[in-house]
TrEMBL record, chain A:
Protein's UniProt name: DNA replication complex GINS protein PSF1
Signal sequence, start to end: none
Subunit structure: Component of the GINS complex.
Assigned GO CC terms: GINS complex
Keywords: DNA replication, Nucleus
InterPro entries with a match to the protein in the record: GINS_A, GINS_bundle-like_dom_sf, GINS_Psf1, PSF1_C
Function comment: Required for correct functioning of the GINS complex, a complex that plays an essential role in the initiation of DNA replication, and progression of DNA replication forks. GINS complex seems to bind preferentially to single-stranded DNA.
TrEMBL record, chain B:
Disordered: annotated segments: 140-161
Protein name as annotated: CDC45-like protein
Record keywords: Cell cycle, DNA replication, Nucleus
Chief place where the protein resides: nucleus
Acidic residues composition bias: residue spans: 142-158
Similarity field: Belongs to the CDC45 family.
Biological process according to GO: DNA replication initiation; double-strand break repair via break-induced replication; mitotic DNA replication preinitiation complex assembly
Record InterPro entries: CDC45, DHH_sf
Length: 214, 577
């Protein structure tokens, strides 16, 4: 165990990173056991270091050699190497976790709250908890803006205005907006309604853009 | 119910509507309403209120649309329509409130005293002058209907019984007498109140002040209000004195803000709209035309030189020569006259016309200055005139809005505006030629109490479907007719009847003007014709259509028109005595 090279020691951690590289932009299943294994490895390495340093310290106390000799002790090199390993593994694990969270955040923005089932399955429980907390914070923030709250998920870039002027080309009748109010679309009437609600009707040709300056 | 004064306009009208999910706005097809709608839409856009705009031109379409829309919106706004007639006939659902911003007076009493459903916006200072009758005088409260059945005491001796019955009969007779008297009083009060109709502060100025209160006002909005106000003068709805009064009282703070006198306060920039309020000539669109054309189509110069006679032309040339202007100058386009000569000509004409007229004009950077009065004229023709049969009134509304939009965006020389001005010149020439034919061929008939003019159906009479053209025509004819220096001609009112083409063939559009003497003398132009027409229709059972929002314009069937005019004669005679 103690004579393995750095790359061999960190193999498990590297496998996590390889996983991430393989599943670009998406979130692979959470390798709980591997992460636990890495954590255990760090513990083992740390323990080995601890034992060695304790041994060296006691030797120092008993013998009369100078303190600088401790640094020349080959065991010290090993300790340093082990410390590097620990940090490397730690870095890899942390990268794994952070990248997963980042991807999760961007997926949340892309899908607007409803993540696909596969991805939900791939999350660890703590990640799910993090996601819920994040969504809750977003909702609170949105609610606090303006009178009724603003839906930030509608546009990536800030739009010129939230509503647009449209003209009804035919007698469509009643139409329900996203906030529940119904409006009547009669032929040749001008409306000023939220952008998102008009998209379908604009495509169908029932509404058309009214070219107004203000 | 009345909402009085600006503070309440804001809190009881705007703030309520702002919080509402969706509002419906109904707009009348006239320039004042268009400008007011523009300012209101601007305010709504700033506040992200979603709304629907519906232009309408008649009572029947308003009633139908109102019923449809009030199922879904709880707030409805009416601009320049609806104050004159009662809304009780329309069955509005419980939670719907209708806000009415109208310049037409008087307001119907049902709307004023109605508790919550109808809210009319008006200024307190003005309300005093209406002499509103008291509620008790007009509406019978329920407690007046006394319960007929009174308790019967246990039967005592017949003497007392008979006395009590006699008392009860006497009481009932007294009550009936009181009620009859109350009814007579009520009829008098209503007669007095509804007798005269007139136009008050333009709605665009009211909405501008509201926008200013909300801090959503800028030079463009002020220009809209200036156009709205000028359109009232151009449509001959108000007198010059009323116009000046509104300019001085209402528009002064805005003038100070958007066209300050000293140079330093003015912001420089090519795309900033600068508005100025200066004295100007009352010649129609003279800056876009030649002086000669403008004078030949102007009421004052035509009447002075009697242009409809054979000597008319030479008369006009004589006037021009006396003024010191050369004919060449007058016949060339005004805009190519050199500036210093233009200033001199301006001074000469101003002194000659002596009309004390000042108006708003705006310009962007170094572009040409545009007069609000001319703008209002061009816009009203575009909006009201049914020249192209395929255009619906919605198209006209959007086209006029587009012109206003482009102008405020800085494109003063946009082709739609130029087209509108060219069309206006054509229209004005048509109106002038109709006036001249009518006067020279003596189409004006003298009935005993009024003068009647039945316009012959020509290709030009299509212009008279627009209210602006109709009233300009009527006023022009009145002046021309009275310029024969026959004093009696100034004393009698004038009634004008115009035959309509499709889709209202077989109907005549009838409107009436008060005597010319009154227009010259009075500062507030109040007309009795709306009431007179109603009376005639009631008394003689003639079916008339009172569909237009202006109560002075009605439609009469051509078969019934002689009967109508005879009865009108009788009514006017009766009212004079």
């Amino acid at each position: 165990m103690t004579s393995t090279t750095k790359s061999n020691v960190a193999n498990d951690a590297m496998s996590l990173i390889n996983d991430l590289i393989l599943y670009q932009d998406s979130i692979p299943p959470y390798k709980d056991e591997v992460v636990k294994k890495c954590a255990k490895q760090i513990e083992e390495l740390y323990q080995a270091n601890y034992d060695d340093i304790l041994a060296m310290r006691s030797k120092l106390d008993s013998s009369s050699s100078s303190a600088s000799s401790i640094h020349d002790d080959p065991k010290m090199q090993l300790c340093r190497a082990r410390q590097n390993c620990i940090e490397h593994i730690k870095r890899l694990c942390l990268t794994y976790l952070t990248v997963r969270l980042d991807r999760l955040k961007s997926l949340r923005w892309k899908h607007g709250g409803l993540l696909p089932f596969k991805i939900k399955n791939n999350l660890s429980p703590s990640e799910t908890e993090w996601l819920n907390g994040y969504s809750r914070m977003l909702a609170e923030f949105q609610q606090s803006i303006g009178d009724n709250g603003v839906n930030l998920f509608g546009h990536i870039h800030p739009p010129k205005s939230l509503h647009i002027h449209v003209r009804a080309l035919s007698d469509y009748g009643e139409f329900e907006l996203s906030d529940g109010t119904t409006i009547i679309l009669k032929k040749n009437s001008l409306h000023y309604i939220p952008r998102e609600d008009c998209d379908t009707l604009l495509k169908q040709g029932i509404l058309e853009f009214a070219n107004l300056g203000c | 119910m009345l909402i009085r004064d600006l503070h309440n306009f804001r809190h009881h009208f705007y703030e309520l509507v702002k919080r509402e999910k969706h509002t419906t706005i109904f707009v009348n097809l006239d320039v004042d309403a268009l400008c007011a709608c523009y300012i209101l839409m601007h305010a709504f856009n700033c506040d992200n209120v979603s709304y629907t705009v519906n232009p309408i031109d008649s009572w029947t379409s308003l009633q139908n649309s109102l019923l449809e829309y009030c199922a879904h919106s709880s707030y409805i706004i009416l601009i320049n329509c609806g104050a004159y007639r009662s809304f009780l006939s329309i069955d509005l659902p419980e939670n719907v409130t209708v806000f009415v911003i109208d310049s037409q007076r008087p307001f119907h009493l049902d709307n004023v005293f109605n508790r919550d459903a109808i809210q009319l916006l008006a200024y307190s200072s003005e309300i005093e002058s209406w002499k509103l009758p008291k509620v008790e005088d007009v509406y019978a409260s329920d407690t007046d209907e006394s319960d007929e059945d009174e308790e019967d005491d246990d039967e005592e001796d017949p003497m007392r019984e008979r006395a009590r019955i006699a008392d009860r009969i006497a009481e009932r007779a007294l009550r009936r007498q009181k009620k009859a008297q109350w009814k007579r009083n009520r009829a008098n009060v209503l007669w007095e109140y509804y007798m005269k109709t007139w136009y008050s502060t333009p709605v665009s100025v009211m909405v501008l002040e509201l926008a200013h209160e909300l801090n959503k006002c800028d030079a463009g909005m002020m220009w809209c209000a200036a156009v709205g106000l000028s359109s009232q003068l151009a449509d001959k709805l108000i007198s010059m004195e009323s116009y000046n009064k509104v300019c001085v009282d209402r528009m002064r703070p805005f003038i100070r803000k958007y066209s300050p006198r000293n140079q330093q306060a003015q912001c420089k920039g090519d795309d900033v709209m600068k508005i100025s309020f200066e004295s100007d000539l009352l010649l129609p669109v003279y800056t876009h035309w030649t002086l000669y054309d403008s004078m030949t189509n102007d009421v004052h110069f035509s009447c002075q030189s009697k242009l409809w006679t054979q000597k008319g032309n030479s008369g006009l040339r004589h006037i021009i020569a006396t003024l010191g202007l050369t004919l060449n100058e007058c016949r060339q386009s005004y805009s190519i006259m050199p500036i210093d000569r233009r200033k001199e000509v301006f001074k000469i004409l101003e002194k000659h016309l002596n009309s004390n007229f000042a108006t708003f004009s705006s310009h962007f950077g170094y572009a040409k200055q545009f007069n609000a009065f001319d703008f209002a004229r061009a816009l009203s023709l575009r909006l009201e005139c049914r020249l192209d049969a395929k255009e619906t009134f919605y198209d006209r509304f959007m086209a006029s809005r587009f012109i206003l939009d482009k102008f405020l965006a800085g494109e003063c020389a946009h082709e739609t505006l130029n087209n509108a001005i060219q069309n206006y010149k054509v229209g004005l020439k048509a109106i002038t030629s109709m006036v001249f034919t009518a006067v020279s061929q003596s189409h004006v008939i003298n009935c005993s109490t009024y003068f009647l003019l039945v316009v012959h159906a020509t290709s030009d009479s299509i212009y008279l479907t627009s209210r602006h053209c109709l009233f300009s025509f009527a006023h022009f004819i009145q002046r021309a007719f009275a310029s024969a220096r026959n004093a009696r001609r100034m004393e009698k009112p004038l009634v004008v009847a115009v035959p309509l083409g499709e889709p209202d063939a077989g109907w005549f559009w009838v409107t009436g003007l008060m005597p010319l003497a009154e227009y010259i003398k009075e500062t507030e132009w109040k007309s009795i014709f709306a009431r007179a027409f109603e009376h005639v229709a009631e008394r003689s059972n003639i079916m008339i259509k009172r569909d237009s929002f202006d109560p002075n314009i009605i439609m009469v069937k051509s078969e019934e028109r002689t009967k109508f005019f005879n009865n009108l004669d009788a009514i006017l005679e009766a009212s004079e005595n």
